[in-house]
Amino acid sequence: MEQIRYGVIGTGWIAKSFIGAARLTGKFDFCALYSRKEETANAFLKDLPETATIYTDLEEMASSAIDAVYIASPNRFHFSQAKRFLEAGKHVLVEKPASVTPKQVAALQSLAKNKGLVFLEAMPTIHMPPFALFQEAVAKTGNISTLRINFSQYSSKYPAYLKGELPNIFNPAMGTGCLMDLGIYCVYPVVALFGKPDRVEAWARFLDSGADSCGTALLFYPDKTAVLTYSKVDGSVIGSEIGGDQGTVATDSISHLTNLRFVGIDGEQTTLYTTASKEEQMRGEAETFFSLIDGGERERERYRALSDLSLTVSEVLSRIRKKAGISFPTEVEQDDKA
Questions:
Q1: Potential cystine with 35: which of 41, 173, 221, 223 (Cβ 3.0-4.6 Å)?
Q2: Omega before 97 cis (within 30°)?
Q3: 0.85 exceeded by the pTM?
Q4: Distance of alpha carbon 186 from alpha carbon 128, whole angstroms
């Protein structure tokens, strides 16, 4: 397969970044865009070198001649939209979280398997080339007792919320909040490295809208504890670190692995990775998506491992939400449809 014809659902900045990332691979042909309003889609496309057919009807886009879809809509719609496109025979790459609950993720994975399609969660961290360096460095730290993983970033939408507006990111009806938006970046690498924790404890603070604004989670393993902190209402400069008796791996950003470095117990520091553009950071997930589709049987084990990881992360997020008291109005209704 030389190129994958794909469509995009969503007109936010993340969708534009993914289109740029897919362009860098040379393996994707962006040819369809869904938006509820045609004028919004036109405004989105005007700065892009590509041209695409605009759809304001999701059913029409699902029936079009695309091979795959990238979904960058609010979390609440991930399940229904991914299900519709899988039923239509399209491969699906969906922004994190893959869906709101583990039951929904498992249902979509099962549907994709039955259809012979790829259903992949877009989590750039684990698909970036420096993630392999991150894993290798962690293996050199020796015996690890504590992981301190932090992603706290003042939301550009918070001032609007303070003025009385209700952006999607602070609206529980959209299936989101700080944990599902930023906390997932903390959970993913820990689970990728060490698997499902034995025990979970968690706390959250809530806005008047009902959305969690910040939180802390503890993931307990037999020989180590991961301390996760995340916030959308304040910033942080401390980054994240995993320390052992032979050294420490640190990064300024757990989502982008910016300024990734290894510091030995003698204090000697080695820089492993600096940074890259947003498009380069997302290029890895686009490359993976293409390889899983094009590789078929050759990529079966890799696809299985990524699917298992996605489901485990969803299960851990669900446990954190239960402990912290985070719930969404539509999740029970959607689970009944899964």
A1: 41
A2: yes
A3: yes
A4: 15
